[in-house]
Amino acid sequence: MPVPASHNESTELKALDLAHHLPAQADYQLLEDLGGSRIITHAEGCVITDIDGKSLLDGMAGLWCVNVGYGRTELAEVAYQQMLELPYYNTFFKTATEPAIRLAAKIADKMSEGNPDLKHVFFNSSGSEANDTVLRLVRHYWTLKGEPERNVIISRRNAYHGSTVAGMSLGGMSFMHTQGGPLVPGIEHVRQPYMFNEGFGEDPIAFADACVKDIEDRILSVGPDKIAAFIGEPVQGAGGVIIPPETYWPKVEALCRKYGILLICDEVICGFGRLGQWFGHQHYGVKPDIIAMAKGLSSGYLPISAVGVSGAIVEVLKTGGDFVHGYTYSGHPTAAAVALRNIEIMEREDLIARTREVTGPYLAQALQRLAAHPLVGEVRSLGLIGAVEIVAEKGTNTRFKGTEGTAGPLVRDICIKNGLMVRGIRDSIVMCPPLIISEAEIDQLVSTIEASLNEAE
Ligand code: PLP
């Protein structure tokens, strides 16, 4: 058991945090008012512990990433051995390392389950960097094909593709667009398949058709010969766990094929088992040309991300000389060795099938218990990612206490007080636990949300 820090240590660290550390995605004035961040000092399995000794069930797998759970000694040992052997070398200028090569082959094997032509891998360190790579690669590809004017990428409103300039421009979160612009030009945002908010009470197939029509209308208004690619998360994570109707992705794919547009899936959250398949697009039976992945690739033990690229695209890249793109840490051998072992753990423990056949359905059933709650407008999940929509009036999508966007953070804070780490996104509570979560822990997760909703009433 972790030993809580003494009161003095805790106070000192919080003061240093406030004095020197700028945490990510934070309101710095609010943090100061609150007396600093919650400092996490230890984690094991699905449980995280803070500096004051409070333990919480981690319903978010860190930041949608710790798929194999915390405390895997094996991953620490692999990192240690690799650091002794070769801690770092780059993959620039005709060099490579064994972990990067073996990891690329392993990822190719997993991608081939959905699309046998997806067999090449480009490494980066984060999901945002992966999407920067995607953007450059796609535009470079069309230039090499002799169609440089095909440089517009269609994305969705409320999509999240990262925090770098390219990532946030590709993303569709308008509140991000207002900071640190101007945006990368040539990105069009269309309707998101968010039934509960934008198609409430509609038939799911008709709603999906309307969303796909919005994409087609945009293709036609911009000009089909100017569209390079369509990008989307199979299930939008940070947007609020938006699970599209089952017909949506096959129709998007058909549209891309109709106009010769590349299909890109951002698998940063959905990849590595989250939806009960190695990649989220495999659940929907579509064949993207490019995929971005990160997070679950190493279960967050070390930073690493990758872009999966089809053979057809690589053949075109071969006609262009150097692809002048890459990062110091592309294919970092220690991160790659850890990611490879992480995937081997998932294989050995059959975590993908377990998510699809056991824990995913168990979570879906457990969430149904919340469906009758007076504040709950909808529960939804797929594999081990889910959301609870909070409403003011049952049977409607009117927002809690009439103030849109406040219910999620309010109930999240009560959940945290009650020992559960979840996220509140606008008016929903979202969850994305480690794939090793037990049925008993799923019950604990759902009953803590229920108790917290009761407190919020
Ligand atoms: N793409 C998606 C779908 C994500 O959810 C995220 C992060 O949450 C990113 C990209 C950006 O990844 P990173 O934070 O590693 O840069």
Automatic annotation (TrEMBL):
The keyword Transferase applies. SUPFAM superfamilies: PLP-dependent transferases. Its cofactor is pyridoxal 5'-phosphate. GO terms for molecular function: transaminase activity. It comes from the Bacteria. Keywords: Aminotransferase, Pyridoxal phosphate, Transferase. InterPro entries: Aminotrans_3, Aminotrans_3_PPA_site, PyrdxlP-dep_Trfase, PyrdxlP-dep_Trfase_major, PyrdxlP-dep_Trfase_small. Belongs to the class-III pyridoxal-phosphate-dependent aminotransferase family. This is Aminotransferase. It comes from Asticcacaulis aquaticus.
